[in-house]
Give the backbone structure.
Amino acid sequence: MISPGNEAALIARVVSGDRGAFDTVMSAHQDRVFSVCLRILGDRERALDATQDTFLTVFRKAGQFEGRSAVGTWIYRIAVNVCYDQIRRAKRRPSVPIPDHVDPSDPAAEAAIESAALRPEIELALSALPADFRNAVVLSDLEGLSLPQVAEVLEIPIGTVKSRVFRGRRLLALQLGNQNTS
Amino acid sequence: MHKHDLDLIAALAEGSLDDETEARALLESCEECQAEYRSQLEILTILSSAPPAEMTELEKAALHRDLWTELRNPSTNAPTGPAWYRWSYVAAGLFVIVGLVGVLSGQLGLGSGDSAESGEITETTSDLATFSADEGSEAPLLDAAPAADGADAESAPTTTMAAEEAGPLPYAEFAEQARIARESSQRSAPTLSSKEDIDHCLEEAGLTDVKVVEELVLDQRYLLVMPLDETSEQTVTFIAMETCEIVYVDE
């Protein structure tokens, strides 16, 4: 794990065109970026596209990173914005297609893809959430960020995060319809 | 219920309370609170058991490869997105230039303009309702027809007042109704199939200046609408598609 100070130094080296530094940053964060994109978008191909777009933006905007937040928070913020842009362009499809570059001779790859998928009913329920609530729930309950971290990523007050997470869970529960009031 | 009560319920479900006495007492005294707690706990349990989402090694290699291919591209200011989307910007730029000037030679610069580039959050919930229908989808996401006097500061009170007049259910009751309907073997077919039908339904429900966020919610039984004005209170209103009545308001 890279310390925050070292990460900020890496970003500075990215600004100066250090490819190795960028690869290091990318390797450190690509799984989390992909994860949040997949959970928000619900589609593996679009999540891969969004992951690429996120790191393109990280590279191009590295000079604008001011160090006021952790590098990971900044990258998460970019990823969420990229996903917002994708959602604007296409309706969210709760499917997990096998991407073209999956090696058919690699059973582990297909297994990894299938195992990452949420249950279909949960995907459908997530897809029906308004984006603000979905993003808060994804960051908090699927990605495991603390409420202050979610607030920092989404640039909203902690109280708003609490409200969106609470209401998002409530709406999900309605969608799943498994209330047992007995 | 007060905000403090909801915070307590959420914290109890998350297991983050050092002392659960107050929260437990709240649940014992309030049926609505119990329903809220069950929802929170149910979802937390489901989501916490979700498998990690990871790229395969092949996907990671493809990501690095494609990324560096893109970064080596001379047009490094190209907008983000899939290849076809980038080319649509090129086509649009050509059209504008030719239309404005008539004679231009040389390569055109491409601007991105995406919110992602700025690294700032721009919430685009309002844009969700303006997508055109995808092929094969049952119904498009549609904007409600705005009121004649346009969206204004009254939009939130209009929504709230209509909800109060229509008598929406409390959460526990609505959740139970939704559960029963979901488990029912008799599923109602969608009754709203056109923008006109949806606009009429919203009008019947007394709602103006709202956007339809999702149709086909809860087994196609409800429309889910939110205020067009994103600066107003972000209530989420469920409208029964069969009766066009406001059934539940989440706020």
Q: What stands out?
A: The longest helix of chain A spans residues 19-41.
